[in-house]
Amino acid sequence: MKTPLYKRVLLKLSGEALAGTKGFGLDTETINKIAEEIKYITEKGVQVAIVVGGGNFWRGRSGEGMDRTTADYMGMMATVINGLALQDALENIDIMTRVQTAIEMRQIAEPYIRRRAVRHLEKSRVVIFAGGTGNPYFSTDTTAALRAAEIEADIILLAKKVDAVYDKDPHTYHDAKKFEELTYLDVLKLELKVMDSTATSLCMDNRIPIKVFSLDEPENIIKVIYGERIGTYIHS
Ligand code: UDP
Q1: Which of 63, 78, 92, 165 has most Cβ atoms within 10 angstroms of its Cβ?
Q2: What was the ipTM of the complex prediction?
Q3: For the chain, which residues score pLDDT lower than 70?
């Protein structure tokens, strides 16, 4: 029987990933499908922490003419909506879940407490980190890098709309080159749009590997856990 490659993973789900083909808001079918894959890997003994994005509702930079800090706080709120939706989908299929927010909202979720998050993981509960880092001017990719370092995750699983990292946009250029493997320095030097540079530097400094792959293909989370050669592997 195959054994999972990782013991503890940090799955980053962008808001877009939860919107399915709609591109905005939440798509129940898509979320349920993701929840099933998460259930599968937790049942194989993998500890799963999740950082959710908010781009399916709001991004700080969408707020034209708005105060940037206010717009960013709105984005952080959007991630909480996504976190609760994901919690609901997981609990519907009997996966114990805790949402922890970087900004306190005690009536709806626990505040982020690292030791508590680790304890939940050890008890096979899925921990969803919402509210980003709690600070404006950051992204949920940076949150993923930060939380992965804090909980000592083995890898960040970066689920995207594209199936791997390319040297240019594969939707626009048919000769775009796909990378199977990259170093963080390559990502920074070639200015590849994997994560923002803050997130990439944080991963590089803390030697956290990243696997970039698409959620559009069925069972990709499971394939990654078993080491199938899909997507792009980024390391130091
Ligand atoms: N955000 C923030 N600080 C953080 C994380 C997120 O201010 O630590 C805000 C920011 O405005 C961002 C929005 O929340 O645009 C949604 O997050 P993100 O764009 O990373 O979501 P994704 O693209 O992954 O859906």
Answers
A1: 165
A2: 0.98
A3: 1
Which fold does the domain 8-235 belong to in CATH?
A: Carbamate kinase (3.40.1160)
Answer whether 76's CB lies under 8 Å from 60's CB.
no
Domain ranges for the chain, please list them. Answer: 8-235
- How many angstroms does the Cα of residue 187 sit away from the middle of ligand 1? 21
CA 140 / ligand 1 centre spacing (Å) = 5
Q: What DSSP designation does 28 have?
A: H
Total-model pTM: 0.97
Determine contact, residues 203/195, Cβ cutoff 8 Å: yes
Residue 50 β-bridge partners: 11, 128
Which residue is closest in CA terms to ligand 1's atom 22? 53
Under 8 Å between Cβ of 31 and 85: yes
- Ligand 1 atom closest to residue 56's alpha carbon, by position in its atom list: 25
| Residue type present at position 207 | R
The pLDDT score that the predictor gives to residue 122 is: 98
Residue type, 120: H
